[in-house]
Amino acid sequence: MHSEGVASRSADQRDSARESRNGTPQLDAVSLAIIQQLQEDGRRPYAAIGKAVGLSEAAVRQRVQKLLDQGVMQIVAVTDPLTVGFRRQAMIGINVEGDVESIADALTAMSEVEYVVMTAGSFDILAEAVCEDDDHLLDVINRRIRALPGVRSTESFVYLKLKKQTYMWGTR
Amino acid sequence: MHSEGVASRSADQRDSARESRNGTPQLDAVSLAIIQQLQEDGRRPYAAIGKAVGLSEAAVRQRVQKLLDQGVMQIVAVTDPLTVGFRRQAMIGINVEGDVESIADALTAMSEVEYVVMTAGSFDILAEAVCEDDDHLLDVINRRIRALPGVRSTESFVYLKLKKQTYMWGTR
DNA sequence: GTCGACTGCTGCGGATTTCGCAGCGGTGAT
DNA sequence: ATCACCGCTGCGAAATCCGCAGCAGTCGAC
Fold first, then answer.
1. Residue B14 belongs to what H/E stretch?
2. Which helix (H) or strand (E) holds A116?
3. Can the keyword Ribosomal protein be found in this entry's annotation (chains A, B) (predicted)?
């Protein structure tokens, strides 16, 4: 039950999530609207969403389940790390020699590293670390990240104050 | 089958969320466990959470409502922006002369800017911009951010590939 | 063209969950 | 001791979730 119909459909019916070349599904307007509803409130009832986007409760439920299965979105609780006991966060800019992606994978495997992105510019990788205190952060940066073979240099930006953190993509 | 004796509330009954000096609530182990459950699945039923943390369904519901009201957490859908039609993202490092916080506030007001943090290090502010295409990104950086009075310089890191994006704080 | 397979939507009951409220016990202040 | 407050429990009613059967539209094959 995991069919991947690779076809181009023009009109209406099974166009909610078409696969594109790179494997990331293409979303139609209705799925986008559903996501938008759930970005406002992740627990909003399916029937209410259906009324908002013009679909039945069951249809919304099936679409949401599919979006979750495909990994397009996830419905989760997000918090301010400070209130859950993580007092030190930092963005770490990393320069790499050799294979950037393998370094990025190594960072991804670290539980303290919550965000990893490969970039163009004067850093090859940006990674966000969430730590309990300074010692913990120091350990992550100096003993774990800089120890990775291929890491040429790092620069750290310790967070002083988080001003904005939104999850309203597509709501604009 | 995770039934744990997390709730030894013999000691203290009304300690689920006490206010500390700076106004951010202090969370006890049970609330943390609830958040953890909702980080795994934001739609998990209250009864299931209650079974996991050792509370009744109604108690979990009241706690969750309180956590939401206090702004400690929010339950939302999160997506990979690429799949929802935003093809260009960038982290922007900003140097400021004068009041850093007022610049940060101005950035916060921009809908394209999804993340703003004041930092120590060679940037005063890091901001993440989510845009539809290169033109849009260029407009945000050159015409809007650099136009802010007090912005001395900016440096951009265009995202090539998002490798990790987690919301599992406290799950470790 | 018809046929068949596939996909997505609807509508429907039954099971489950959510919701509101009254009551209870522990804590701290008066 | 008394009182007010707060969090937890338990319970019935309402709303929601869930699975399933049926229908309609598209696509590919013949």
1. none
2. strand A113-120
3. no
Q: Are A154 and A145 in contact (CB under 8 A)?
A: yes
Instruction: Determine the pLDDT at residue A9.
Output: 32
> How many CB atoms are located within 10 Å of the residue A156 CB?
20
Q: Is the CB of A27 under 7 A from strand C?
A: no
What are A18-75's pLDDT values in tens digits? 554 455 667 889 999 999 999 999 999 999 999 999 999 999 999 999 999 998 999 9
Interatomic CA distance for residues A166 and B111, integer angstroms: 9
pTM of the model: 0.80
Which residues of chain B fall short of a pLDDT of 70? 1-25, 168-172
Mutation for testing the B interface, residue in A78, A100, A126, A140 having most B CBs under 10 Å? A78
Q: Is B99 exposed, middle or buried (0-12, 13-18, 19+ CB in 10 A)?
A: exposed
